[in-house]
């Protein structure tokens, strides 16, 4: 899949109470809230301490995921209102639809083949078949509400990830409550902790967030690759969805369910074997998408040919997270903490300038919709305001004796070293968590 970026289209429509997609979203979220509440509320009544512990643990666990994906698209951050909608869709609408459809499809599998086959394979077949489309609908809803916001493959990844996070949070809570009920020890906490370790750390890295991020990338490609034939765009989107379904199927399948014959550590090894390849695939895809988006916005800023707004070194620095951090450290060494803060602000202002320039490309006055202010704006005025912001911050940096916010050139190969180190840490951490689970009496 080749990543692509396109300027935001002109003539965007403002979402009003007459927008059908808005009513569809409200109806689906209301239904989901009712269904989820009908399951969650009894858990709080029966196991209040365990339920609150599950809420706190999984809520805290979701924070780094939210921060990671919210900042994944640094050059064009997605509106909080839309990422929250995607997350709510995953946690409410997709969960409710999956619960109803999953039971029906499991019964169909049992009738068509056999109850024995259904008991063994239904989790692998039914879960991805009902859950992946339900979550994917959340990305489609975002497109219907604000098509102009999904203007890169990376945008599809971000919205897909947020839908996956929402779904994963609710599902993890339900699994924790089920573990408490199965333990039969009343309102006990150890089953919640064991579920948190297993579903949070051992499987959280390669679960619903990863699946739906992959499917979202396909939606993003179908929207932005306007120069490609329609059948290719649809085909790539279907292929990405098929990949998400397959990863989910492999993860839930009973293959190697007993590990490699070495007990709990063997089971942990199987989890890594099943999940790590998909995680690396999605990570590589995200990296490619980020490079493509960086190249697009780099060209946009370079087209200004104005060192007062962006120097060549700053453009190179702006497009890579490690380079941005290195530039801030370099500024701190030269001008102290205040210089590092100013460089951070300048980088963000330059990123917003690049987005403003992209939105202004071919857009008549009053046609660019600003989701933060909920009004249409003249793109030329927005560009002028961003340019003034950059020049003001540049002046403050010059006052500290710093004329350029570029990072020192970094050496090649660091990316692969960090990737290898991260992989080793994931494996080592999984083994350590397996020991913790054993101490907790988990299975």
Summarize the structure.
This protein is mainly α and 443 residues long.
Could you explain how this protein is built, in words?
- With 443 residues, the chain is mainly α.
- It has two domains: 279 residues, no CATH class; 108 residues.
- The protein contains 13 helices and two strands; from the N terminus they run αααααααααααββαα.
- The protein has a two-stranded antiparallel ribbon with strand order 1-2.
- Strand 1 and strand 2 form a beta hairpin.
Question: Key features?
Answer:
443 residues; mainly alpha; two-stranded antiparallel sheet
Write the SSE topology.
Layout: H1 20-46, H2 48-70, H3 80-112, H4 115-145, H5 153-183, H6 190-202, H7 208-224, H8 230-252, H9 264-302, H10 312-318, H11 321-360, E1 368-370, E2 375-377, H12 379-399, H13 414-440
Helix pairs in contact: 1-2, 1-3, 1-5, 2-5, 2-6, 3-4, 3-5, 4-5, 4-7, 4-8, 5-6, 5-7, 6-13, 7-8, 7-9, 9-10, 9-11, 9-13, 10-11, 11-12
